[in-house]
Amino acid sequence: MRHLLVYTFLGAYLINPTLSAQQEEKAAILVNEKTVTRIDSLLQIDMTIDISGMTVGGNQSVVCTPLIERGDSLAELPAFLLNGRTRHILYERMSAESRERTREYRRHNNTRQQIQYQARVPFRAWMEKSEVSLVTDLCGCGWERLSEERSPLFPIRIAKPVVLRPSLAYRVPLVEAVKARALQGSAFLDFPVNKTAIYPDYRKNPRELAAIRATIDSVRLNKNATITEVSIKGYASPEGTYANNTRLAKGRSEALLNYIRELYDFGDARMIVDYEPEDWEGLEREVMASGLAEKTDILAIIRDPEPKDMDKKEWRLKQLAGGEPYRYLLREIYPGLRHSDYTVRYAIRNFTVEEAKELLYRDPAQLSLSEMFQVAQTYESGSPEFNEVFEIAVRIYPNDLISNLNAANTAIREGKTDEARRYLDRTDDTPYRTIAQASIWMLEGKTDEAKALLAPLADHADTRVAEAARDNLRQIQAYMEYHE
Known about the structure:
Elements: E1 4-9, E2 13-15, E3 28-39, E4 42-53, E5 61-70, E6 73-76, E7 80-83, H1 85-92, H2 96-100, E8 103-106, E9 114-122, E10 131-137, E11 151-155, E12 179-187, H3 205-220, E13 225-235, H4 242-263, E14 270-276, H5 280-289, H6 295-303, H7 310-319, H8 324-337, E15 340-348, H9 353-362, H10 369-376, H11 384-396, H12 401-413, H13 417-424, H14 431-443, H15 447-454, H16 463-483
Helix pairs in contact: 5-6, 9-10, 10-11, 11-12, 12-13, 12-14, 13-14, 14-15, 14-16, 15-16
């Protein structure tokens, strides 16, 4: 992976090399903006060098050699040549190959002049706290001159970049005293007119009764589950008199309960039967979803609190628009209002961490959020296994406030800020949520906004919240100092 660190230094550093032992003139070199860049295994130096204060005679050459040094360690950078007018003409007459090996600049005395310098050398560890200096050779002494006068330019301090990695506060789910679960369904059984007895082979009854048995069997065959309650509520359509519909709804509900009691031994489980003589709520829901032209008028009749006599209300429906809408209700909607809703409630035993680990991938619905959280704690925080636990948890408990918060934290760890926001929208306003929101802003570079959220939580009574807030504040401070 390409590794790039850039450090920019602003300012001006003055060098006054002596031109010769006999000359009294002083030459001034100003180094203005400088950038030190580490690119993988190379160190790159960029400098803007101002030579406006230097005077170079027409027949004179000045060799400038930048150095990187620290103690006894030294690395020579490519030299550059400053020529007077005559020397520049001679340089131009050199072969192209010779000129390519030397960086040459003609000095125009008494004018403002800058040169751009760039060089790369292999990076060594000792360079992290080194200095860049300059040797000017006016006498042709060559390399020996490097061991003599050196003019310091600027220090190199390669600090490690600050990368924000938010500390997250995962919320511990409450332990369920009883892991209560429920399976629900609706059966649309067919009964002969005015009959309440169940005929298992009548019309579509074999299919509907099989669905009920499959629901019950899925719990009974689970060795970890115990059925605690079976409830049935029957509904009739508004067709016919309210009194007769009451008889039908009650009798058919009791018949279905008796049918399943004859098939199974439910032990101490509660058996509950209830009924709704006429399913007017279901009728309203179906009419709203329909394309009936008289929808508004039908809904007005259904919602009108008067008359309280349901038979009179049905009579009003029959009279509407010559009875055509009512015939549609009889044919298309009323059959679906004759149903029996059933619920099988059960409890699941608690599991050890090792058992929970095995069930997490085979049947996670049997686990509580608390058990899943305990499984996550057996993995390294932030590891793929750790993150996967919370992803599974939110799939099994998509509406749970805590599962959504912890899933948001997992998304933040993976840099998925948009996904994290969607999870946070399904959780409540707590200090944990605030930590998560601040973490998103940290990843997005909104450090001021994140800092404002975190500061009040640094001394929070909840240690998870306080520790995450303080660590994030430390990171933000280091990040801001680094970029300053």
